[in-house]
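Record type: monomer structure entry
Structure origin: computed from sequence
Chain ID: A
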Amino acid sequence: MTESTPLSSLGKGDGLHQQVLASFPLCDLAEEDLTRNPLFCKLLATLAQHVDQTGLTASLRSELDKAEQKLQSQRRHWLRSESLHRGLQEMIQDCSVRKHHAIVPPDQTMFHETMEKCLLVAQCVRQLDPSTTTNQDQPSILGLNTQQVMELMPPEKNVQRMKQSLPRELEKHLKKKCLNLLAYYQPEWENESEGLKNSKLSHLSVQLDNEQKRAKGMKETCRENTVLLQRQTQLYLSELVKCIQLLQSLILDHRLKTQTDLDRKKLEYFEGKCELVLQKIKAEMVEIQLDTYTADAISAHRKIREKLQSELKTRRVEKQSVEMKLASFEILGRDFEALAEEYCRLLQEIEAKNWALKEFAQYNQK
């Protein structure tokens, strides 16, 4: 997207939101954030015309690319010298290992010893030679200088012979390492012919480069998928929270609406249950009465009741006549009350004497 691209060409609504999210994948933004803040969304859309996905401007990206190219060039130069140095050290180590397992030809021994001494002298000279970043006035190591160390070089004849054999030996060593790498990368080619291995080896760098690019692409895809998964997770969680809140409100409303009906049904249930219990009690009482009062007992009770009612009626009549007599006696006053008491006392004495005579007569008859 160039700087001259108008804002209207970015799209509207959901399309604008998707383009803004795609333009800033490293920002932790969700589509809801852009929807709630439309001005901020427009600001990001305008900013996307001047920066890339990493947040760098075009000029800064150009300078960064140039610096990256320079760094890559220096890195390749360093890797070339470093790989050459390590290859030479590996050749020396391989020779030392072979000495313990087999007899090494004298020329090979001389070659590796000369190369080892040359590497050690070169390393010491490099340590003694101050670079532009070090202090020129610092004292030398152990009081040595470059000329004194160079005197330890092997004889010139051995050095020249070593230099003549070095390219061939180094090529053999590097080829062996490449074949080992090929056997590790593609084990099925280990038992193939030398020519086929060389042919396959010529394409190994391209294959490794393609594999590296594919790995970077997969890594980038994985990163994008991670960002997308995080956004989808946030969106899912927000939607889940909304669903939970809606479900809680539905449950609360449903509970409030159905509580009255539930209470009414419970009341009807308990009323019916109480009525059933009362009817059962009445049925038990009737059953007890039926078991207790037979037809003969009811007939006898009815006769007894009739007799008691007739006697009660007779006693009520007698009571009424006695009450009338008492009322007539009360009219006579207090004088008659003494006579009545005397009369009662005499009646009691008469009854007592009659009882005594009756008992006496029964005793004489015996």
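Annotation 1: Residues 1-13 have pLDDT under 50 and may be disordered.
Annotation 2: The CA atoms of residues 275 and 281 lie 10 Å apart.
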